[in-house]
Design a protein that fits this description.
Largest sheet: none
Shape: elongated
Distance between the termini: 83 Å
Radius of gyration: 24 Å
Helix content: over 70%
Strand content: under 5%
Length: 118
């Protein structure tokens, strides 16, 4: 009997890797999936809300000393940088409780800034 060709060996190797990764992906617990979903919601949705409030507050603040277009541009740029850092920090903090407190505290500060400007 002839040994399998290189093409068949490569196919067998790739299929065994795919089966290995699929079995690992299926073994994730439900609590882990909920934790990942919670982290995504905190990072992207709450981060977006905080960014929108920060953008509005900074626009009001910068409009006092800059032209309208410059104030909007600068506020949007700073808010975009804030959003990127918010998302990165959300995935760097390992504890969900600490993530929740940090996110709520930063959103509370931004909300107070927004309410103070308005």
């Amino acid at each position: 009997m002839n040994p399998p060709s290189l093409k068949h060996q490569a196919w067998f190797f790739c299929s065994s890797i795919a089966i290995h990764f699929m079995s690992k992906a299926q073994s994730l617990s439900l609590t882990y999936r909920i934790q990942v979903l919670y982290r995504f919601v905190i990072a992207f949705i709450l981060g977006f809300i905080c960014t929108a409030l920060l953008s509005l507050a900074l626009t009001h603040l910068f409009h006092l000393s800059l032209a309208k277009a410059e104030a909007i541009f600068l506020a949007a740029f700073i808010s975009l940088i804030f959003y990127v850092f918010f998302v990165i920090i959300s995935f760097c903090i390992q504890s969900l409780i600490k993530l929740t407190f940090v996110s709520i505290a930063s959103c509370a500060v931004v909300l107070l800034l927004f309410l103070g400007m308005g």
